[in-house]
Amino acid sequence: MKFQPIKPKKVSSQIADQIRSSILAGEFSPGDKLPPERELAEMFGVSRPSVREALNVLASSGLVMSYQGGGTVVMSLVDSTGGNPLSELIRTQQDRALDVIEVRKCMESWTAFYAAQRALPEDLRRMEEIVSGMERNLEGLQPSEDLDANFHIVIARATHNIVWLHLMQSLFDAMKEFQQSVWRAVYITGEDHHQLYLHHRRVFEAIKARDAEAARDAMMEHLTFAEQRSTAYVARNQAA
């Protein structure tokens, strides 16, 4: 019998393994920045060159991208290396955004279902903070579009399924410009804002109660409402 000699694992490989595990555990979302090299070196108790080498390994596998002077950003598992063609398609053909909403109805009703089964206390705390922020914004009709988007991402994170999270983040990135236009043009009155707040409150309460079917139904109700408003917005623009 012939044994192979044991080789000590490189420090940079150990660093890369830990960062990779954090990304795949959903501790970082697509678009999040990793701590600067200096901070990472202090956290790991290693030299900056070792951290830099680890980040290069992760970049070569497509998990992160480093920008000159802009730090290191976590990439989506479903990103295209050629940018986001879906975003460009929606920009030139707005009715394609309705296709995305149709897909979201299928996806997000089930993310809410699984979030109700799997959400941890910190997930529920994040959701409650967002819903409470939306409630505060009702006074003075302050826009809640960023809170709205974040709420959906937090639910995807609460499934603790990294694929749900990355798919949702990619869809929201592609839809960002369209969603902003819809918010500004369609959700105008106090009743509009109150209705959206109630939708999000119902989803949260169902998840908090661990009622998976109610969470799925509440999310479907919300997205059907959003689909109706978005359809009217697209139709109005096409008629103009």
Brief overview, please?
With 240 residues, this protein is mainly α.
Your description of this structure?
- This protein is mostly helical and 240 residues long.
- The protein folds into two domains: 11-74, Arc Repressor Mutant, subunit A; 85-239, Four Helix Bundle (Hemerythrin (Met), subunit A) (Up-down Bundle), CATH 1.20.120.
- The protein is built from ten helices and two strands; from the N terminus they run αααββααααααα.
- A two-stranded antiparallel sheet has the order 1-2.
- α5 packs parallel to α9 and α6 runs antiparallel to α9.
- The longest helix is centred in the C-terminal third of the chain and has 28 residues, at 212-239.
- The protein is globular, with a radius of gyration of 21 Å.
- The chain starts with 10 loop residues before the first helix and ends with a helix.
- 32% of the residues are buried.
By CATH reckoning, the class of the largest domain would read Mainly Alpha
Strand order of the largest sheet: 1-2
Low-confidence stretches: none
Question: How would you name the CATH homologous superfamily of the largest domain?
Answer: GntR ligand-binding domain-like
- What amount of the residues lies in strands? under 5%
